[in-house]
């Protein structure tokens, strides 16, 4: 059963623009946070989470696009795959890259994604026309998400600090799952024939804001980053996201009722 | 550590895990998450609009991993900051339950709104009545998983950190809830209008029971039904998993030498073998008692 239909999804905003938004927003967020924490102060670490949110919105858009080819129960798997590829690329990129770490991570994520996408189409014969490009997008978006949230937690992407404060403390687990669900949940939540792009993507903003709040909670115990501003901005973004989503639900739903009976037989015909 | 202390801690972990398993299954049933959700999702498309909460966050393992990882992270931060462990675990579970609540609401809104052409309404009173129940269950699940993880870190000196253990146990409890408890809801409760044990005929797809003993059926009615068998049996399954997997190394401590370590491995294999044989016997006994599936009368006539 493919409740998501089985063909290309209708897009109000073309995917190319979302890719540009995700890559540019993500990298600007990551590097701005990195430099501003040094220059202005640790409370600028929240910008990293804003970059991560750009990545999550892009990731959700890419999941929506590829999952529209009838990937009903595969939606959660593809989100987990995104962050799985992202974790490998991030640790590799940050470990070898130094200041260019995030860019190397992004490039390696794109290569891993392309490889997995071609395997899915060529070896597993999934036959989804946009599989290769979507896997590349998803892996890269997952990487931006991980690096952005890492900076929001620690204030830097310097690998020894990341290793000490994020990976060996186990907070990487919450980055993995909160980032992964922010990417997979929007389309999964809105799955159905009358799904709309803007309604799906605003859920990514809302869930990304929640991941930002969690990153802020972790930042409170790290010296390099500041938690309170991250939590406050995260809650504000969550409110914007949630109320925007509710507006779109009211716009798109058949009817929003306080309570009531089921539609009658005449109504259904 | 004294073997007796180890056993005591293990018993506590097993008890917490049993509660976590039961509440996890009931939490997923209130919102028809996971496998039974496909029928809830399909129903409006087959002209059966309903008043059942559709909590399609993701599969149960990722969504439980999320709430347990958030709970574990918050608790670990608070413990690092100097808070007492009990307070930290409670606050962690509260934060996790709150975030889980937002996920439930976006899922119900989105899935219902995307069924516009099939005229599935969005009922706000369902959100108001079901979401607190879901959050309550998710609080219990997260708290119990955090207790299990915290005992492993603090008492059993497990090398993994609290957030990571909570994440792993979250996936595990979700996976066990999904495989054990869902059958009771998806195959039985949703299809009480067909003969018991009939299986799901393709013609019945989406024709889930939408009317209750009085009024229209909702997710809370479903969790009431599942609390009788599906929830407790999930709890037992998860409790046994946690208890037995720890019991073999508590009894035969591998730190005391390689030979004892191998004995614990062999004990584990024996337990798995016993469970396989036991399950096989249950299946054979059930088939002997109830026979093969009866052929539908109409189908039988056509065949004749």
Secondary structure: helix percent of chain B: over 70%
Put simply, the count of helices of chain A is 10
Q: How many distinct folded domains of chain B?
A: 2
Beta-strand proportion of chain B:
under 5%
For this structure, the quaternary state is heterodimer
From N to C, what is the helix and strand string of chain B? HHHHEHHHHHH
| Succession of helices and strands of chain A | HHHHHHHHHEH
Give the overall shape of chain A, derived from the CA principal axes. Answer: globular
Structural class determined from secondary elements of chain B: mainly alpha
Rg over C-alpha atoms of chain A, rounded to the nearest angstrom: 19 Å
Residue-averaged pLDDT of chain A, rounded? 91
Q: Tell me the total number of β-strands of chain B.
A: 1
Task: Tell me the number of structural domains of chain A.
Answer: 1
Number of strands of chain A: 1
Termini separation of chain A (Å)? 23 Å
Rg result of chain B: 22 Å
Main β sheet profile of chain B: none
| Poorly predicted runs of chain B | none
Q: What form of chain B results from the Cα inertia axes?
A: flat
